[in-house]
Amino acid sequence: MTLPPTFPTGLHRRDWLLRSAAALGGLALPAQAQNAADGRRRLVVVMLRGAIDGLNVVVPHGDPAYARARPHLAIARPGEDGGALPLDRLFGLHPAASPLMPYWQRGLMGFVHASGSPDPTRSHFDAQDYLESGTPGRKGTPDGWMNRLLAGLPGPHSASRALSLGNTPPRIFAGSAPVAFLGTGPKALDPKAIDQARLQRGLAKLYAGQDALSQDYRDATQSRQDMRRSLAQARQRPAGMQDDAPSRDPSADAGAPSARSFAADARRLGELIRADAQTQLAFTSVGGWDTHVNQGGASGQLAGRLSALCEGLDALAQGLGDSLQDTVVVVMSEFGRTVHENGTGGTDHGRGNAMWLLGGPLQGAAGGRVLGEWPGLEDRALADGRDLAISTDFRHVLAPLLQGHLGLDDESLARVFPALPARGAPALKLLRS
């Protein structure tokens, strides 16, 4: 490798070598190592960038105002042509989400409707930032809530304890605790320059010290080796599936892959988590949900993307295998969409949405249930006269999972979600006793 004649201002030669090697090899650079926890209980967060239309995913067919507000986009009642899949007397699931129905029927899946961020912004950038920082309305928070969670979990540290799937480091994992990064596609961990024995020997000598940068290098190298070994064990298993294209507004997706790309990567992600006993937290994002135009109802743009997403979630669960019993998957989006359809066959930026929950720990609690207080869709009940009102702060869904599932104590929870408001209603019962 040829070094440039000069280095960027303030960048030590060792720093430049490490970053160059990382770029050549797809090597993730974690920051300082901190403490971690029991890897048997896992949390996977899937971010739907672009604001998915939760009203056409978890369909309130029992609310008469729903069909009136969406004469062209409303999903029909269960039992009708193109109708929703029945969940309970009020709600049904979009027919394109049929791959998830077996999990609902087994009590492994639930939803929290009318949930979201209390901040009223309808900016994709700001809303995603607040969802990932865990501090709605507060700009400038330096780190993401999953990184703060990683730092606060009990138990021993490992280089691959937190895993981010995607080609762009997400805001949610920004911070000082180390995170392993895995690119998308089946060749993400194929051998690269960084895996050459000669280069590794040279870098090992260069970073043999006890300083923070040397520890970063060792963590990054170890996490890559762990992931390659774990993924090699699962390479024989097939991947998934289907359709799609990015949003009309690229900024809404923030570099996230499409639902089809997620479907192809999801099984591999699940197998990697299952094979590496040290991996406890994982994050990925899926774009393509900013459906201002030609959204469609039971078929069309949203239906195609939703089908691929749900096939991907099914593939993720299949890849997790038996470890799904100790894993909770959370699916969330930055905000919902307007109750009334617009004049171009779509929906615009709104407020309340539905959070999805999947995993064995939900059985006997949130599994097979749609939770949250339903505010209704009558005009007088809408936020700003146009949107589904938010009755559940997204942090009040995550907090009981972090404590009841991952064992986070009160002091650590306060660091993960600072200034978390007290919940007016009784706490959501999400997990089995």
From TrEMBL:
Region (Disordered): 118-149, 215-261
Annotated Basic and acidic residues bias: 216-229
The protein's name in its UniProt record: DUF1501 domain-containing protein
Low complexity composition bias: residue spans: 252-261
Superkingdom of this protein's organism: Bacteria
InterPro entries: DUF1501, TAT_signal
Listed Pfam families: DUF1501
Phylogenetic classification of the source organism: Bacteria, Pseudomonadati, Pseudomonadota, Betaproteobacteria, Burkholderiales
PANTHER family named in the record: BLL7424 PROTEIN (PTHR43737), DUF1501 DOMAIN-CONTAINING PROTEIN (PTHR43737:SF1)
